[in-house]
UniProtKB/TrEMBL annotation:
It is an enzyme of class 5 (isomerase). This is Isopentenyl-diphosphate delta-isomerase. It comes from Emticicia soli. Belongs to the IPP isomerase type 1 family. InterPro entries: Idi_bact, IsopentenylPP_isomerase_typ1, NUDIX_hydrolase-like_dom_sf, NUDIX_hydrolase_dom. Pfam families: NUDIX. Residues 31-163 form the Nudix hydrolase domain. Keywords: Cytoplasm, Isomerase, Isoprene biosynthesis, Magnesium, Manganese, Metal-binding. One of its GO terms (molecular function) is isopentenyl-diphosphate delta-isomerase activity. The lineage of its organism: Bacteria, Pseudomonadati, Bacteroidota, Cytophagia, Cytophagales. Pathway: Isoprenoid biosynthesis; dimethylallyl diphosphate biosynthesis; dimethylallyl diphosphate from isopentenyl diphosphate: step 1/1. It comes from the Bacteria. Its EC number is 5.3.3.2.
Length: 181
């Protein structure tokens, strides 16, 4: 589906569905909508991040979490995250819900992300082949390494990824899973 015809879910501040709209129109209007972000780690406690394809409708060329997107109308959020992981990164894995947060940011092309973002985590240790229409590059990085990189060059990363990395829920997750060791 193209960005122009995809219908995504509009929500209120309580993350309750209130309607739907075309993906591009929703971002042009800055309407609050449901989204997800996926963080996949390997057994070396490294996080898989990717550089968004240059031609993405916003944030092209920026580095971000493993995968992100929007559930389609009538699509359960976890199923959408699993679907999109396969579409973008070329693999699927068991995903576990971590937390959700709300953010709003505008882009130079007059689009606005105004999302309630549901964050999922997973583990994957096999080969995969990314979708070049979605992913320019990818790499596995340690959490301390990515936190340092984002601090040094914040303009190279998506807004929502930076919000995830500084969230209390993410920091608790890495501590509980001994990822910083």
């Amino acid at each position: 589906m193209s960005v122009d015809t995809t219908e995504i879910i509009l929500v209120n501040e309580s993350d309750e569905e209130v309607g739907s709209g075309g993906k591009l129109w929703v971002h042009q209007q800055g309407l609050l909508h449901r989204a997800f972000s996926v963080l996949v780690f390997n057994n070396n406690n490294e996080l898989l991040i990717h550089q968004r394809a240059i031609n993405k409708y916003h944030s092209g060329g920026l580095w971000t979490n493993t995968c992100c997107g929007h559930p389609n109308v009538a699509e359960e959020i976890k199923a959408a995250a699993e679907r999109r992981l396969g579409e973008e990164m070329g693999f699927t894995c068991q995903l576990d819900y971590l937390f959700k947060f709300q953010y709003k940011t505008s882009f130079e092309n007059n689009l606005t992300e105004n999302e309630i973002d549901h964050v999922f985590t997973g583990i994957y240790n096999h080969d995969f082949e990314v979708n070049p229409a979605e992913v320019l590059a990818y790499k596995w990085v340690s959490v301390p390494e990515i936190i340092d990189e984002v601090a040094e060059k914040p303009d190279n990363y998506t807004f929502w990824f930076k919000e995830i990395l500084r969230s209390e829920a993410f920091l608790e997750f890495v501590a509980l899973n001994h990822i910083l060791l």
